[in-house]
């Protein structure tokens, strides 16, 4: 999601987050509740070192992806980041962690990778 214009950042974030939440393998009522909890959305600083470390790692991964895919769009980058292993979460994969948090389990046989292009 582009940062500018900054005045609409929160509303664009909610729209982008809604699209991503609706892609999680979970019952529609759970997805609806999750989307409903996106408002109000407030931005602030994190003091949690694990969160900061994870976000920094995603930033480095995104920079590498953008160097390899200079014409790639941000939606594709978002899909790719959902397939980026993350040691700070129990499933190690953002897609699977989202399903686990919303439903309490990950469907048997669920593959961690959804992105169609190989991960670095």
Summarize the structure in words:
The chain has 5 helices and no strands. With 120 residues, the chain is mainly alpha-helical. The radius of gyration is 15 Å and the shape is globular. The model has no long low-confidence stretch (mean pLDDT 85).
Question: What can be said about this structure in brief?
Answer:
The chain is mostly helical.
Approximate helicity band: 40-55%
Content-based structural category: mainly alpha
Radius of gyration: 15 Å
Termini separation comes to: 21 Å
What features would you highlight for this structure?
120 residues, mainly alpha, 0% strand, globular
Helix-strand blueprint:
Blueprint: H1 9-21, H2 28-36, H3 49-68, H4 74-82, H5 94-103
